[in-house]
Amino acid sequence: MTAGSLLSTHLLLPKTISVTLRVDFGPARASVLEKEVRIREGATPKEALRQLLPFTEGEICCNPAEVKGIDGIMSDPEAKRWWRLKINGDSIHASPYRSRLKAGDVTEWVYFEDLR
């Protein structure tokens, strides 16, 4: 392999970054998983989650690309239990399929009960 082909191969490889992934099972399980994972730069929170646990996609509110369940714990609208995504503490602008992660981001999935 020539230096030129090594250089062009290197340029085509995506840059990998480290992000912290935290999954809080809230009322479903008394456990929180936290792990640093390596993913490609610009990956989505769903891609990071895939590194740690299985999940189920499906429409809960608005989009079939939403995360409906993680590790067998499903959102349950009748019981008012949901998965919420936070990126660096922000849940307002966090999307499981639209947000793009950067090095050092903290991605947190929280299963919670809406008691309102």
Q: What's the topology here?
A:
Layout: H1 3-12, E1 16-24, E2 32-40, H2 45-50, E3 55-57, E4 67-70, E5 73-74, E6 81-87, E7 106-113
Parallel strand pairs: 1-7
Antiparallel strand pairs: 1-2, 3-4, 4-5, 6-7
User: Strand arrangement, largest sheet?
Assistant: 2-1-7-6
> Structural class, from helix and strand content?
mainly beta
What low-confidence regions span 5 or more consecutive residues with pLDDT below 50? none
**Number of helices, counting only DSSP H or I runs of 4 residues or more:** 2
CATH fold-level topology: Ferric Hydroxamate Uptake Protein, Chain A, domain 1
Number of domains: 1
Shape: globular
- CATH-derived architecture: Beta Complex
Q: Biggest sheet, open or closed, and with what strands and sense?
A: 4 strands, mixed
Compute the separation of the termini in Å: 64 Å
Q: How many β strands by DSSP?
A: 7
